Amino acid sequence: MNKQIELLAPGGDVEAIKGAIVAGANAVYCGLDVFNARNRATNLSFDELCGVLRLAHQHDCEVFLTLNVVILEQELPSLIKLLNKLVNSGLDGIIVQDLGTFNLVKKYFPSLDLHASTQLTTHNEGQIQFLSKIGASRVNLSRELNLDEVKSLTRFAHDHDVLTEVFVHGSLCIAFSGQCYSSSVSVGNSGNRGRCSQACRDEYETTATGNNFPLNLKDNSAYFDLPELVNAGVDSLKIEGRIKGAHYVYTVVDSWRKQMDKFEQTGRLLEDDSNLHKVFNRDFTNSFLKGDLTKDMFIDNPRDHSVEHAVTKSQAVSIVHIHKAKQDLYEDKNKIGDELADKIKGLNIDKQQLNLVFSGQVGEPLVLTIQVKTANGQDETTHVIESAEPLKNPTQSTLDTNAIKKRFKGFNKARYTIEAIDFSRLADNISLPFKELARLKNKAAFLLNDSVEILRDVDVPPLLNHPKVEEGSSIDKKPSMSILIADEKDLHLCEVTEADIYFKLPESFKKGCTKYIDLFLQNPRLIPWFPAVLIGKDYQEAVNVLKHVRPKRIVTNNTGIAYKAFEMGIDWVAGPFLNTTNSYALLTLQETLNCSGAFISNEINRMQIKNIARPKNFKLLYSIYHPILMMTSRQCFFQQTVGCKKPSIEDGCMLKCQKATTITNVKGVSFAIDKQKGGYPSIYNDEQFLNLDVVNDLADLFDEFFIDLTNIGAGSKEEQNKRQLIDSFEQIISGQKAAKQQLNQMVPVSTMAQYRQGL
Fold first, then answer.
1. 328-358: pLDDT as tens digits
2. pTM summary value
3. 3-class state of residue 689 by DSSP
4. Which residues contact 670 (CB under 8 A, 6 or more apart)?
5. Which of 149, 569, 635, 729 has the smallest C-beta neighbourhood within 10 Å, fewest atoms?
């Protein structure tokens, strides 16, 4: 290898982090018990984080903290308080999903290094530019990308001074990260808040292809793809697994460390990956990286595959031989466990102990000797500091020991504990200006912070809540309405409403096709609506639409298109799949990328919405009627449900395939699987989202209420009379409550549970 690639390991608890360190990780990522996307992990207290930082840095290992959830408005004070602590912790970086956190850190905590989470769904060049613009120094590339795409994006990222990391081992989500709402919709536990209940691992009624776990993917392992990853130029190889234990983390990191060292030293790979099969796994696949999306990526069992692998590898058939294969596996696991225990037995993250010795006589400086000891009492470091002014006989007040203790008790915090304060060598009846005592304390704090300047707490001022955007010469108090269509046969709706009409572009385009360019040029009233996922040539074709149409305004759910709109000076609105949940997210979009408005996330409730502060001249939008997307995937949902004759997904599948089916879980709840021409396979809830309460609750907040009339994700439901729907929604928005009953009859299978429960 020409450069050392970082091996980035998960750390769900202290023991797992120790395992990663002794196994040879270059960096670990871990979470506190707040604001992180693995609530099911044990996670760390702040005191433990400080101990982990000291231990890791002693072993030349960096530590990145996961703050990778969306932040709610009422949580901003707690987040700011935490950031004030983190800037003095020695942390090497924070991993962030929330767009508002980027704004806060860039403005008030610029010493913190920002990494873009996998939850930001990074898969095209524009997204890298977007994330660089808002402050990210590195991005996690979507794990659905293939090696050619990884190589291309890494080269582009390096040209823009951005590092890339790629998941190379561990669990695979079938959905695009950051674009999965299945857990949120089905059981109220949002993946955007670290509460994913893994609905993709659920059991379903047996499908036509004979599968009971049709959404369950094998685990990711690129163990033998290391040369290609090196050639792609990626900066960090990331292992998934913060809910896994120390035994798992140690085994996987140790295997990868040996593989990377072998390749660096010899240019060849180890052929033995047997240890990876001895810890939890669902069998392995590298099909996303290889771009070979077959049904072999799936496994009809979400549980541990290690025993089955051991039995198969040993070719055991008889009960005796199967028992022996299992026993051999357990013995091997125990050996690895013993090896781990032996290596970490001397590692300690307990607070270091301080002995403070004050000495001095009248006419001499006040001397502070700081003895830093390890948790087991062994001397580690000694610092000696003197006051600039000598001690004097008191004229007014005496410097007593209680005043000194009060001044220095602040060291009894996360990193240190004061074991003793010794005044035996300090004269009685002395005086020293308090400013000198403060200077002495500040110098001590500097030395105890690894000779790094202590940053004062930042007081972030409250944001102003600005009025609605002016329409014409006055402020229109009532929200307007907008609709979304995706089929030219619905163009006649332009004639029956004055609402803004968005036209949904597909996720895949035929190369060089001008169909959508012509559509927008011939129908200037249509406002382009860009999807969340645009990869490779599809992103380039979407950019071509922008370049040739030059629309006055767009809505985009893709940050790459947002960046291009900003670059071209096109007015753009952030779509509902950008997951905006707080005022600072809106500021990030407006101040950094000249965004003119944003949809507020449908995952949050009335109380979580109402206190969001609107930026000046910024529109707030909200969807009151739409199909509820649960997940979108680059894989094919039909291979494991109704079956498909094609052995793997081909280039033409995106453009040509148009299928639909349903799956039903063991609780009897059905979900619609929908594949539109030019779209990725998606799963939708059986219920439509219909929220008429928000029109009464928050009409003063929102500028625009939105309804989706695309029919996408409707499953077997009868197509609605769209003219009638438009008329009824217009009545509701204008304040005619009588239309509510009619709408509830027209949309009998609906929910607004997310608006009630929130995040």
1. 999 999 999 999 999 999 899 999 999 999 9
2. 0.94
3. strand
4. 662, 663, 664, 686
5. 569
